[in-house]
Write a structure and sequence with these properties.
It is built from 11 helices and 15 strands. It has 341 residues and is of the alpha/beta class. The longest helix has 20 residues.
């Protein structure tokens, strides 16, 4: 029996439980509006390490361990770990999880990686290949700026369209059984390339991919935006969110106040000078784990469409004049009944 509904969406036979969620962030995130929701707030951007890249691996190591602990499990109980980051060859993840000694799938979906890892993890469980899967994503502001834009010592001025890469790691443990929030459907995105070349305008590069994903999801499921309590894209920021609203309106969809973006939620753009908002793999990961997951647990959110978005670029592609393709991955999550968990 096929689990596919429409062209890009699958409906899981078994609802996959999100058993636990953990979030660890850096100092700027700890100063933002979601500060009280994070599990761990690190005051040192180096996290006690010699380099930013080593610091990112430490964020991964500590937070992945915390997610397992919060699920009342041990590393040996986890069948697979799926995660990724923005560093070359995903070294942030590799060195962060190597000591867990868990079978590992390294992923690169740029800033959409949290949606990609949750999607594939849920499929592994639904397919009967695993009982427990640890999924997550990380990023680090300083490392990302050095790799994709300019070295920080240059003091380069950031344009108003730019976003601030979130420093931290978000992780969830998925389970075949459990009374946590449930992943019920997955809509996998296609690469969308509209020719945007400005690495300081990630919102414009990724918004068309988010729109394509939303359209595919609504067509596959027969739903509309108002069928969800919350729709949250990953890290489009204020610029990208507005583009999504305008483009969806042209397609006949009203993206009302229930539609938000993790890049808008995580920072106070005016007080923290983050311009268009937050971005990076950790943006959607820590915002979901810290802010939205408890609302799903409490039943305040009954149904959520979580859509991490990513810009599939590299330093090499940018240096060679290539545009920035976008991708988005959608995960439908049902909250617990009020009073349950």
């Amino acid at each position: 029996m096929s689990k596919r509904i429409g062209k890009q969406t699958v409906r899981l036979s078994e609802k996959v439980s999100i058993l636990s969620a953990a979030s660890t962030v850096g100092p700027k995130e700890a100063e933002g509006p979601l500060s009280k929701y994070f599990d761990q707030r690190v005051e040192d951007i180096y996290f006690g390490e010699k380099t930013w890249e080593l610091a990112e691996s430490k964020f991964v190591e500590k937070n992945m361990g915390l997610a397992i602990q919060k699920a009342n499990l041990k590393p040996k109980d986890i069948d697979y770990v799926l995660c990724g980051d923005l560093l070359n060859q995903c070294t942030g993840s590799t060195f962060g999880i190597k000591n867990l000694e868990i079978p590992f799938f390294g992923l690169f979906g740029a800033c959409s990686t949290m949606g990609e890892s949750m999607s594939l993890g849920a499929m592994l469980i639904d397919g009967g290949f695993a009982n427990y899967v640890l999924t997550g994503a990380s990023s680090h502001f300083c490392a990302a700026e050095k790799q994709f834009r300019f070295p920080l010592p240059l003091g380069t001025q950031r344009p108003p369209t730019s976003t601030w890469t979130v420093t931290g790691d978000g992780a969830v443990v998925l389970s075949r059984k459990g009374d946590g929030p449930k992943i019920v459907e997955i809509t996998t995105g296609k690469i969308v390339d509209m020719g945007v070349t400005d690495a300081n305008n990630m919102g414009a590069a990724m918004a068309p991919a988010a729109v394509a994903l939303l359209k595919a999801h609504f067509e596959d499921t027969g739903r509309k935006p108002q069928d969800y309590d919350v729709i949250a894209t990953g890290d489009l920021g204020t610029v990208g969110r507005q583009l999504v609203v305008e483009l969806m309106e042209k397609e006949g969809y009203d993206m009302d106040s229930r539609y938000t973006d993790c890049g808008i939620e995580i920072f106070d753009a005016k007080k923290q000078d983050t311009h268009a908002g937050g971005s990076g793999c950790a943006c959607s990961a820590v915002t979901f784990c810290a802010y939205f997951y408890p609302k799903l647990v409490s039943g305040e959110i009954r149904r959520m469409l979580f859509i991490p978005t990513g810009a599939l670029m590299s330093p090499t592609s940018s240096q060679q004049g290539q545009p920035i393709p976008g991708i988005a991955h959608g995960v439908v999550i049902e909250g617990c009944k009020k009073g349950a968990k």
